[in-house]
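This section describes the prediction task in plain terms. A model, or a person checking by hand, is given the sequence of a single protein chain and must write out its three-dimensional structure as a string of tokens. No templates, partner chains or ligands are provided. The sample shown here is typical of the held-out split.
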Amino acid sequence: MSTLTLTRRRGLAAAGWLGPVARRLGAGVAVLWAAATAAYLALLFAPGDTVDVLIGDGVDTPERRAQIIAEWGLERSAPRQYADYLLRLLHGDLGRSYVLQRGVGEVLSSQIGPTVRLALTAALFGVVIALVVAPATAGRRSRLAGLAGLAELVAVSMPPFLVGLLLLAVFSFTLGWFPVSGDRGLASLVLPALALGLPVAGVLGQVLREGLERALEEPFAVTARSRGITRWRLVTRHALRHALLPAVTLTGWFVGVLLGGAIVVEAVFGRPGLGQVTLFAVNGKDMPVVMAVILLAALVYVTVSTVVDLAYLLIDPRLRRSR
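The expected answer:
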């Protein structure tokens, strides 16, 4: 193959990536701008004076009011206030909590670690359970497959806080295997991660099984079986790749469940994290912290969605050609 042909093919491959990546990054920036604007409008249209809303349940003094007016530029025109707000966000300035008397970035960074550990562990549990159960039961009409489907249905139907209470009742109160609350090592992480990960495993397992069963009926599967390939090798090495694309589509929902469920699960298990920060901010009317949590959730969602879209292109090269 000539050098010119190789160069042209590489150029076409790069062009196939460039367009989708640029469009997805542009869409992500638009979503982040919309989230920031929505949070700002929520502040402006909240009942009462803007200074009162920002103070929340904090100490209300003339000096504090003057500080808020200066920091938020409330004496300026509305377009200038909005432009300054966006500019501060671009520089990573999330503002100040006038209830906690700390920077919002400092408040979130001090609590994001436990939430990230909980979410990642829950995601690991959910994915591993689904990847073990779905291939083992796909295409089978056995009692094991029926039990797996029933267990997935129960896991999907039960909210994480109820799963957490049941796990606490059995494994903490009755058996005493795990701590009841707090964040004291890996043992205290198992039950909350399971409570958050089991519903994810239920949905992901159902989607993977359906995708695997469709793939096992495709012509390539029939051809592979005629060559004497074992069922497990056919499922894990060939059919699983075809079943991954619809499962990857669930990643956005996956992240939403982990973010929303973490708040409730952290409260049930008495764990530190963004869930406790969010509940405290809502109860204390700490608007700067609430706005920052909204922006953080949007950033995480956009980042994951962008990675998922790029993963589509890796899993199925036909998407690059079609785009």
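For orientation: The mean pLDDT is 77.
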